[in-house]
C-alpha cells in the first residue's frame, strides 16, 4: 500500500488512465468528479471511491482540491482489499464509500513522500508505523458503509448525448419530451433505452444526478433550503422526502454533517502509484 497527495486547481482534468493497483480516491478538501466508461461519481470530503485494478478512469476537479489516492497492491491482478475481505465480488467494481473520521485520519497519516524525495535509508520506526496504519486502513475500508451513489452511463449515442446534457446542467428543468427532442429521438425511444441500457426510468436516473449535484453543494456548506431551491424543489421538506426515498436515509446523514477540516497538504505529484 502507498499514498499520494495532489494539490489540484479547479477545472483540472486528468486524462483517461488505469492502474495495475486498486485505488481509493478521496478529497481531503474540495470536490472531484471521477468518471469511468460506464459511470460517473461525485467525490466530496465525506465520500471516497474505490476503483479496482485495470479500470480506466478520469478525474475532473470541480473546485480546488487536496486529493489523496491510496494504492493497494493487487497480486496476480486481484484487488488487495477484496482478497483481504474474502474476495467479495463487490470489490471488483467501483463503489462509493462513506468516509468515517477514522478512515479520514488514516488516509491523511499515510506517507505521501514522492519517490525522488524519499530518504535512502527509511526510519525503521516510521516504516513499522506505516505498516500498522496500512493494516488498520484496510480493515476500516472493509467496514466502510457503501453508498448508493453513482450515475450510470449508456452506450447508445443518442441516450449518452442526452445523459451528458443532463450532467452538464442538472438544474435545467425540462420534460423528457424536451430532452428527447434535443437528441432527435422520440420520448418512447428514450424511455425504452433507459430501461434497456440502465434498468431504470429517466426520472429515477435524473434523481441520482440531482443527488450528486446536491452532494457537491453540501460539501461547500450550502444551506439545505438553497440546495432544494437550486434543484427545483418547492421546499426543503420535498427535497428531504426525495433523498429519503432514494437512499433510505435523511439528508443530515446522507450529506454527512461531520466537521470537515483541511488535512495537511503535500506536494503535487504525478497520478500514478510509482
From TrEMBL:
The keyword Transcription applies. InterPro entries: AraC-bd (IPR003313), HTH_AraC (IPR018060), RmlC-like_jellyroll (IPR014710), RmlC_Cupin_sf (IPR011051). This is AraC family transcriptional regulator. It comes from Caldimonas brevitalea. PANTHER family: HTH-TYPE TRANSCRIPTIONAL REGULATOR NIMR, TRANSCRIPTIONAL REGULATOR-RELATED. Keywords: DNA-binding, Repressor, Transcription, Transcription regulation. Pfam families: AraC_binding, HTH_18. GO terms for molecular function: DNA-binding transcription factor activity; sequence-specific DNA binding. Residues 253-274 are annotated as: Disordered.
